[in-house]
Every structure is written in structure tokens, then in C-alpha cells.
Amino acid sequence: MWRWYDFIPSGRPFKVLGLFLLGSYLYSSGYFEKTVGKVKTLIIWLVLGFGLTFFSISLHGSVASFSKNWGDIFSKFIHETGQISLALSYISLIAILLKRAPNFFLWNILKSYGRMSLTSYIGHSVLGIIVFYPIIGFSFFGRLSLENVYYIALIVLLFQFTFSVLWFKWFKFGPIEWVWRCLTYKKLFPIRNTKNEK
């Protein structure tokens, strides 16, 4: 219950919205075509990511508790900036590896997973609720070790990888992406992948 009460004071909805907007900006600015696959870009994001993350740890702030002073806010800002920088470094690393080994089998899996990113995002939230919440789920919250949580996360990820690859054998869009597209354009788009039906 407190998790739901925590959403607005913690700023989580605004953080998630901000990340979506950042991704949208990077895409529209051509970052993923021109800049992301450069080694220099990878080094910059890695140095920033590790540097700011370790700096935030040295400030002894907490990202889990409410901010009580400007020091807490500064610590959270540094921590979040470091984490976003690390995420961008992972994207650069994948882009560089994609250039070096374009036929690696994992890329097709990630491509399918990325094509239904909104479905995957909402899907892993729903699966998390089923696993961890009481009444409507298995009520594992607070009852598992951190190691076991990692195993569950890996199982969820592998399930979503498999689901996305199989889904696109028969359909053009992810399920939620299709609904979003139809609502955005106020038009019913065909969802079946007719190429694979021949």
C-alpha cells in the first residue's frame, strides 16, 4: 500500500515520463544513427556514469527515502544522472558490437523485443505484480533473497524475449503498440503479418 502512496512524493511518475521524453528526443535528434556507435561516445558515458555513481555513493544520500534537505536532492540528482549515463553507455556498447558483428543471433531477439517496448514495459510490471503482490499474486514481496529476485527477473526477461520473437512471426506490431497506433491515427490498422502466412 505504501508503494502506491510513495509514487507522487518520490517523483517516480515524472522520472519515468522524463526518461520516455529523453528517449524520444535522442531518437528525433538522430543520436541513434549518428553518435551512438562511436567509441568516443561510449568512453564519455562510461566515465560519466561510473564517476557520478561513485560520487553519489560518497555523498551518503539515499535514493529510496524522501529528501529532507538540499543535500539529499543533490545526491539523488547526481545518482540519477550517473545511472542514465551508464544506461547510455550500455546502448553505445551494443551499437558498437552491432557494427562489429552484425549477424550475431542476439540482435534479432533484441530487435523483436524493442519493437514491442511498451508492451514489454507494461508486461513486466504486470508479471511483477503477479509474482510479488498479495491477493492478486503469489505474495513473494519481502520473502525472497536478492539472488532469487535476480533469477525471477531473468525468467521474466527470457519469457518476454521468447514471446516477442514468436509474436512477430504472425503480427506486424506489438499488442499495445498496435492499440496505441490505432488510437493515435484514429484508424484501424491491420495487425496480421501476411508475409508469413504465404
Short description:
This protein is an all-alpha fold and about 200 residues long. It has helices at about 1-10, 10-30, 30-35, 40-60, 70-100, 105-115, 115-130, 145-170, 175-185. It contains 9 helices and no strands.
Folded structure, characterized:
The chain has 198 residues and is mainly α. The protein folds into two domains: 2-103; 109-197, no CATH class. The protein contains nine helices and no strands. Helix 4 (39-58) runs antiparallel to helix 5 (70-100), helix 6 packs across helix 8 and helix 7 packs across helix 8 (146-170). The protein is globular. The mean pLDDT is 89.
- Estimate what percentage of residues fall within beta strands: under 5%
Number of helices, where a helix is a run of at least 4 consecutive DSSP H or I residues: 9
β-strand number: 0
- Let me know the largest β-sheet: none
Identify the overall geometry: globular
Q: Helix and strand succession? A: HHHHHHHHH
Mean pLDDT: 89
N-to-C span: 51 Å
Tell me the helix content.
over 70%
Number of structurally distinct domains? 2
Radius of gyration: 20 Å
Briefly note the structural class of the backbone: mainly alpha
Unreliable spans: none
Sum up the structure in keywords.
single chain; 198 residues; mainly alpha; 2 domains; 0% strand; globular
SSE inventory with pairings:
Elements: H1 2-10, H2 12-28, H3 31-34, H4 39-58, H5 70-100, H6 106-115, H7 117-132, H8 146-170, H9 175-185
